[in-house]
Amino acid sequence: WQCVYCGRSLVNAGAKSNHERWCKQQQHQPAPEAGQPSEAAEAEAAVAPDESGRALWQCVYCGRVLTNAGAKSNHERWCKQQQEKQALEEEAAEAAAARSSPLPEPDAPDDAASRWQCVYCGRSLVNAGAKSNHE
Prior knowledge:
single chain; mainly alpha; 3-stranded antiparallel sheet; 5 helices
């Protein structure tokens, strides 16, 4: 069973009837505020028929082509979340890079031999862990 308005596949005639009633109401709703396209307008703009005449739906975020409006809606929700998540991760990485400047400690010696030297007895150790255990 397929909706005549949006092409969505439904499991039975009752579901199709209820969905078509809802879908028809969505198409006849007044347009929202200026600058905010309605979902129906976005959906109509995204429909592009293929060679067989079937309607195809394209994601506005990544351009992926889907076979029905429901799949498009679910995919766009996921795609938007992924883009927002990626933007937040990029901002966090930039902030972390700005915070972590590899400045040497002011009184740290330059050569590796004296870097892990015990401050109490002067013994040179092979790494920071050995120095920590020794002290």
